[in-house]
């Protein structure tokens, strides 16, 4: 491994990231200190120790585009878009399957990398991500994949790419968030869940087995969030499983939660996806037939080839059926799967409900 080799392109993933950052803590006496956010921003040894200058102007922030495996010259990459937490490590299982076959790029939330950044709408984010993507890949065809909120953003990116005259060869949507037409109506105020409930769910993912002290104060204040995060981070965990939060400090975890809450607000304000010419394909968990039909209508009305996954929403990016079908399709060079036909296991809404 050379000092300019990219940690993630070499096969670094979320678990290895945790191990690397944890081991680096022993080097503080030698002047080496970095956090997970630093590793994502500067994924080479040379950048981490400051021997390579930052690319671009001093005012330019770090790029939110991260390579999850080795890129394949001459082949357009599969571009994966972050979900509601803003992170992209959920796409690692697919990136590992595609190693040596297709490069995988992932777009993470700018707000994770730059606390001063604040997105104003999902459509603005999609335009920003298209600008960033075209710096890496100036021309199509483009291949997009989005899970959860990433599905909504991928669809909006496809619409923006087509508006600019580009071709979207693949628009793969993995149990995507579907905006509601009621969002954004005059006089409507999209509601959010209690921030304390959201924080408990967030920490259960980032710090599995850690206790969460629920504040009595209902006000959503940064100091209150940081206090809960600090107590959960310092407390002994019930299970031995380690989430990404182990490699993150209090400030990073707090910023990650603030990012997730802001993305949730933007999602609640988005009225619909935009029509696209690209043929979308979908993988859905059971019970979301109404959402699927509403999304088909938003994207232009054409029936979407789809499959039902036998897992829950958070397991979808690691579902063996999804991973196998994506690998098979990409190796075959197609863009219209799953199997280029609607789900044969559920022939109508009544069967799907059963």
UniProtKB/TrEMBL annotation:
Domain Carrier: 1-56
KW rRNA-binding (keyword) present: no
GO MF: hydrolase activity
Biased composition (Polar residues): 343-354
Region Disordered, annotated ranges: 334-354
This protein's UniProt keywords: Hydrolase, Phosphopantetheine, Phosphoprotein
Pfam family, one: PP-binding
InterPro entries per the UniProt record, alphabetical: AB_hydrolase_fold, ACP-like_sf, PP-bd_ACP, Ppantetheine_attach_site, TesA-like, Thioesterase
Protein known as: Alpha/beta fold hydrolase
């Amino acid at each position: 491994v050379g000092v300019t080799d990219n940690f993630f392109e070499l096969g670094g993933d979320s678990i290895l990231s945790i191990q690397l950052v944890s081991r680096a803590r022993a080097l503080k006496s030698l002047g080496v200190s970095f956090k997970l956010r630093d590793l994502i921003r500067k994924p080479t040894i040379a950048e981490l120790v400051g021997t390579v200058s930052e690319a671009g102007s001093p005012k330019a922030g770090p790029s939110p585009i991260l390579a999850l495996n080795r890129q394949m010259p001459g082949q357009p990459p599969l571009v994966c878009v972050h979900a509601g937490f803003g992170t992209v490590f959920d796409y690692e299982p697919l990136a590992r399957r595609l190693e040596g076959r297709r490069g995988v790029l992932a777009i993470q939330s700018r707000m994770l990398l730059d606390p001063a950044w604040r997105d104003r709408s999902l459509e603005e984010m999609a335009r920003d991500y298209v600008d960033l993507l075209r710096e890496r890949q100036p021309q199509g065809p483009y291949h997009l994949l989005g899970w959860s909120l990433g599905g909504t953003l991928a669809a909006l990116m496809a619409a923006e790419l087509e508006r600019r005259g580009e071709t979207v060869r693949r628009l793969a949507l993995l149990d995507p968030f579907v905006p509601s037409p009621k969002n954004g109506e005059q006089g409507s105020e999209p509601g959010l869940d209690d921030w304390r409930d959201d924080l408990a769910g967030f920490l259960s993912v980032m710090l599995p087995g850690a206790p969460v002290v629920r504040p009595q104060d209902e006000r959503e204040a940064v100091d209150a969030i940081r206090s809960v995060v600090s107590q959960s981070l310092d407390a002994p965990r019930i299970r031995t499983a380690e989430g990404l939060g182990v490699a993150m400090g209090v400030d990073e975890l707090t910023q990650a939660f603030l990012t997730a809450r802001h993305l949730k607000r933007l999602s609640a304000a988005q009225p619909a996806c935009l029509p696209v010419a690209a043929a979308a394909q979908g993988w859905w968990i059971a019970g979301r037939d109404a959402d699927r039909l509403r999304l088909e209508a938003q994207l232009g009305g054409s029936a979407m080839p789809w499959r039902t996954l036998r897992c829950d929403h958070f397991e979808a990016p690691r579902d063996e059926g999804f991973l196998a079908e994506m690998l098979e399709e990409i190796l075959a060079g197609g863009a219209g799967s799953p199997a280029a036909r609607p789900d044969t296991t559920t022939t109508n809404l009544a069967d799907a409900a059963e």
